Amino acid sequence: MTSAKSNITTVIIYAIGVAFCVFLLPAPYSMAMEVSANRSQTAASSDPGIVTSPPITKSFSLSTCFNFADQNNKDIAVAKHNLAISKAGIRIAGAIPNPQLQVQTGFGDSFLFLFTGQTQQAFLTQQIQTAGKRTKKIAVARENYQVIELQLAALRFDVHNRVRRAYAELAAAEAYEALIEDQREVASKLLRIAKSKSVSTKDDDSELLQAKLNVDQFDPQRNQAQGRLQQASTNLALVTGIKPQRIEVFDVDDNGLFKLSSQATEIVPSPILQLPPVEQLIHTAFSARLDLKMAQERVAMNRKAVALARAERVPDVSIGSGFTFASFAKNQPVGLANASNYFGEGAFFTMSTEAPVFYQHQGEIQQALGTLRQSERQVELLKSQSAASTVSDYNSVKIAKANLILYKEQLIPTAASLAKLALDGYQAGTTDLSTALVAQQQYQQTLSSYFDTVVSYQTAWADLERDVGLPLQK
């Protein structure tokens, strides 16, 4: 009985001490404890201070996203119509002008009672294109069709590049969310240890409050992680052509780098893979980049446009032929012989053309030559930009690869060992809570920096693929 009374007395004294400490704490700390207590009693879905995401509805691989984009991306769908428009342009360029039919006749007294007759005729006129204009128009239209085809291929490659970036960002968002949850679990473990120490030692609650604050500080990070996950899912849906109907969260099949794996993934090759020489990539870019091919095709089209403009100096010819007859009055006066209406029959031939006296299409020729020179300079500009961007992004890939190796082989193992030692030491009583918290924060920062480096590596690799114009990991 005495022992029971002693235990009750101890609990009462301990409760009074805790209440006194809380009373003496500044308002922000006591408010934080109150908010934390309320959150622990309220479901996360109903807590206005906690952002939650709906359940995962779809899981995609990168190749599946590529297929979705090819079928549903709105930019590609719009660009495909340009092919049909350009193909119709070839038919328009090859069209032969229709002949012009003209008839001259009439009614009334002039055609019934005129003694001398009234001429009537019917004839056809046909325009003849000279200097091979029709052939040159067809050649220009076909070159334009080639440009449109390359433009569609370049757009598809660009969409795939954007899909790769959006997919990589979603993988990073998933990894970041998992990191926050894992680190929050470590913080919760520290909190449980602090609670057990507080009960056993009956000391003040400063360590307990510090551990509790450390757990609560992950709530804003969890909200940011959820927001990043939702935004990344929306961006992937947009670029693949999936029309968002509500807030959705997608899952990716490929996040090996975020799990410290050195294996090649669909997004990027393994960081330990040796890069080809930058000179080889520059040479490949000059022959593989679709925008460069498109610029070169425009040069060929503009050369044919110059030939067409020069051919316009030769005027077209219109030729025609027809039939003519006259109608006479039935009763002719004295001295004029009666004549049948078929008496005035005959055929005729006409030809007309423009006389290029004042203007010989000098403006069109100069305009076509200027466009040709501009397109030639555009090819040179694209080559310079391609070489410069390839070298720059090549260096970015090299730096990101080197940093990934450093993090994987040195920094992360060291930070993990330090965090584990600090956690075990705090649990055994050989280190204080501050040391354990600092070690945990350093480990979290190291992993966060590693994830940022993975994102940088994926972005740099996507940039390098865009520069070269080929998927390099194949």
Any overview of this molecule?
With 474 residues, the protein is an alpha+beta fold. The protein folds into 2 domains: 41 residues; 334 residues, Outer membrane efflux proteins (OEP) (Up-down Bundle). The protein is 66% helix and 9% strand. Strands 2-3-5-6 form a 4-stranded antiparallel sheet. The relative contact order is 0.12. The N terminus is likely disordered.
- The general outline is elongated
Strand proportion? 5-15%
What is the end-to-end distance? 80 Å
Number of helices: 12
Order of helices and strands: HHEHHEHEHHHEHHEEHH
What is the highest CATH level, the class of the largest domain? Mainly Alpha
Helix-and-strand structural type:
alpha+beta
Number of domains: 2
Largest sheet: 4 strands, antiparallel
**Which whole number gives the mean pLDDT?**
81
The fourth-level CATH homologous superfamily of the largest domain is Outer membrane efflux proteins (OEP)
Keywords:
two-stranded parallel ribbon; 2 domains; elongated; 6 strands; alpha+beta; 474 residues; Outer membrane efflux proteins (OEP); four-stranded antiparallel β-sheet
Short recap of the structure:
The protein is an alpha+beta fold. The protein is 66% helix and 9% strand.
Could you outline the blueprint of secondary structure elements for this entry?
Elements: H1 2-24, H2 27-41, E1 58-60, H3 62-72, H4 74-93, E2 100-104, H5 109-112, E3 118-128, H6 133-201, H7 206-216, H8 218-240, E4 250-252, H9 278-288, H10 290-311, E5 317-327, E6 346-353, H11 362-428, H12 433-468
Parallel strand pairs: 1-4
Antiparallel strand pairs: 2-3, 3-5, 5-6
Helix pairs in contact: 2-7, 3-6, 4-6, 6-7, 6-8, 6-10, 6-12, 9-11, 10-11, 11-12
